[in-house]
Structures are given as C-alpha cells and as structure tokens.
Amino acid sequence: MSLDRTRLRPRWLHLGFGAFARAHPLFVLHRGLMADPSGDWGVIVARLNSGQAELDALDQAGGLYHVVEADASGLSAAQVGCVIGSCHPARDGAGALPGLIASPEMAVISLTITEKGYCLGAEGLDLNHPAIRADLQGEGAPRSAIGVLVAGLAQRRAAELGGLTLMACDNLSGNGRKLARAVLDYAGATDPALAGWIGAQCRFPCSMVDRIVPAMTPEAHERISAHLGRDDPAAVICEPFLQWVIEDDFATERPPLAAGGALLVGDVEPYEEMKLRMLNGAHTFLALLGGQAGLATVDACMADPVFAAAVERFHRDEAAPSLPPLPGFDLAGYGAELRARFANPALCHRTEQIASDTSQKLPQRILAPIRWHLVERGTVPVLMALVLASWLCWLSGRGDQGAALPFNDPEADALRARLAGLEPGPQLLRAYLHHYAAFAPDLTQDPRLYTALAEAHGALRARGVRETLATLLSEPAR
Questions:
Q1: For 333-346, what is each residue's pLDDT tens digit?
Q2: Cα 259 from chain centroid (whole Å)
Q3: Which terminus of the chain has fewer CB atoms gathered within 10 Å of its CB, N or C?
Q4: Global model pTM greater than 0.90
Q5: 334 and 274 in contact (C-beta within 8 Å)?
C-alpha cells in the first residue's frame, strides 16, 4: 500500500534531520500513517547550522527517501513519505523556523540534536553557554535550538494559539523533563509570563528511542545505490530492530505513533534506564576500549572472543543489577539480544562515531550505575572503571601501541586543559574525576572510585586493553 501524500499537512516539525531521525521517529510516523488512512501528519524537517545542501537535495526528491535495514541476510528498503518540506535559516531566513512553530496547524515538535544541543548545565539550562548567552543578549535572531523554540512559542502565544507537544528523541535520561527545563529556563530569562504560558499549555513527554543507525559513509551510499538501482542521497542504513517508548502526554490529539510501532506508557523511566545502561553503556564500553585497542567497528569487537565475553559480563554483572525491576521483562534475554545486534556485520558501526561526545554520555551511562554499586554493594564495577580509565587514555590522543585516537567531544579542550602538565598518578586522576564533580560530587570524592580508576588506568597503560580484559575475565566477578 502506498501513502496518499496529498492529505498531509504541516503538523509536525523535526529539528535535526540526521541519520537517526530518518531511520527512527520519522520512520515510525510513516508506518503509522500507512496504517491510518485518515492521518494528515506531514513533517517539515529542519537543520539549524550545517546541512542546507542535504535539505536542498531532499526537496528535489520531493521529500522522499529510503530506510534500508541491514543484517547478515542482506538489505531491505522502505521508502518514507511523511516529509513534505524542509527549512534552514541560512536559506529561508532567521524567522522561518519560529514562524513555522507559530503556524496554526503545527502540533508536534521533535528533536534529535544530540545531548550537547540542549545546552544543559548541572541544574538546568546553562545560561553561560556561548550560544545561549548570545541568544539571550539579542545578538541577532536565535541560533540555538532552545532559543529558536522559545522564539516560536512566544509568537504562538502572541497569536493566541494553543500549546504544542515538544518531544526530545535524544539519549538523555528524563529527556522530556530536561527539554522542558531548558525551554522554561530560557523563557523565564526573557519573559516570566511566557514561561508560565509554556508550562501551562505545552507538553514535554519523555521518550526512549532505540535503533542502531551508523553514520553514513561513501561505502554505505554505494551499497544503497546498488540495492535501489539509483542514488538516494538522504537514504540511511540501520538495523532491523526498532523500539520507541513514549510517555502518553500530548498537548493535542496523538499522532499515529502507536500504529507505527511505538509503545505509549505512563512511565518511561524504567525502559530508559534499561536502555541507557545496557545498550548505551555497553556501546560506550566497546567504543572506548575497542577503539583504544585498534578495533574500528562494534562488530569487530564482538568478533573478538575477549571483547564478546567482556561485554556479556558487563551486562550480566554490572549493568543489569543496577536497574530497577521491570515486571515481566526478561533482562537476561534483552542482554543477549543486544549482543546479537552488536555483532551485526552489515552495520559497520564505527567505534570512533560512538566515542563522540563521550564526556556528556558518561554520567548517565557509567557514573550513575557506578553510584548504585557503591551504595548497594560497596564496590566499584571493574569494567565500568575501565571505561572511565579508557576515556582518560583517549584524551591523551593515543591508543594501544601509540595509535592515534581521533574523536569529537565538546568538553575535550576543557578536560585536556585541566589535565595539562600532570603526569600519570594521583594529581592527574583527581583532576580528571573533579571534572565530573557537578554531576556526581559524592563519586568524585569517593576513595573507592579513585582506587579503582587508578588500578584500571595503570593496567591499561602497562598491558593494553586486550590483555587487561583477559586478566579480568580470568578472575571471579567482584
């Protein structure tokens, strides 16, 4: 069955039209529209900074693109047709996005802008973030995602229109609450009455998203072109698995997401914590330690018996015990399913890609479960301590055998400046832990964590990743 696109209206705005957005939230909406012949949920996709050329190419294709699922059996393509237009400030003007937010038909705004795009500090919006500070000082039209959202909502209030549903689709614990806090903090800094209107009229449901979507490469585009028999510059490759759990809290009627495969629930947190610690935490484990060992992809890590056994222990002994119970859910089976997904040789999910923005991922994925182990068991999980130690090695820029470790991280310069001139030892380790004091002051002062980090860092520097893991696996779990 084909989608009747003539009925679609601009009711949904998505900020951050990257590979994950194409393969996950927009794909789910497309499936829901296929199942709901009366639905009119058309999407306008937007980028704030880079990506204008990609949006131009998407417009030339009529908003159509393919999602290509890949596993060992081959490729399977589906064309997505819910996108009906695009917007970019450099092309359409600085007022275009706020104007769209204030359009009468608009009902949902979703975001995939990565963790750093929310400009968060320890207690909410970081008002000293350069982009936020510039927006608040009125240096031209807003350029941050939060500034653009508030500008649009201000126009919407002035036009006496109703509120919207704003839905974060990034890997942040409590992502809806954090988006709400960022938006309300920004609005409160400009107009407290606007903040009150947003709080009363808009909804910010939390959501948990799960699908492995590697960054697109020239080789991936070539595989898609060969499979389709033509080029599709907006196409993406991903795994067949998809999960989306959404808090059932919408400002207007619900889009057909449940019909597209999403699960609407009263409380997302148990699913969210499960995914953050089991999937994302294990991904960071493999990305950092595998990348440090010279393994370029996740499936290459899983093909190594030492890494495969280590991630199984990571799931069983460290991540899973730290999770609250989810009645009726088979956590051991979930872990086994994750490891099978990691081993998918068709994805070529690069460890370097997953290592991006590690400084902002460690608190939720690693430090939070470490706190549970310290409080509940009185010990530091050794594999999670290795993750912290490996990130410290990445910051030096060199992996095992001196191989270069290129990566992209917004806090890398600040971390490196804090560690500059310090030799491996107590001063270096304490300075490194202190960087995370805003998130976890209790942890960064805990001598047990310091001791575990010192042992892990010393082992990685002396023996390298693979030998360190092999030694740990030969010992009983602590």
A1: 999 999 999 999 99
A2: 24
A3: N
A4: no
A5: yes
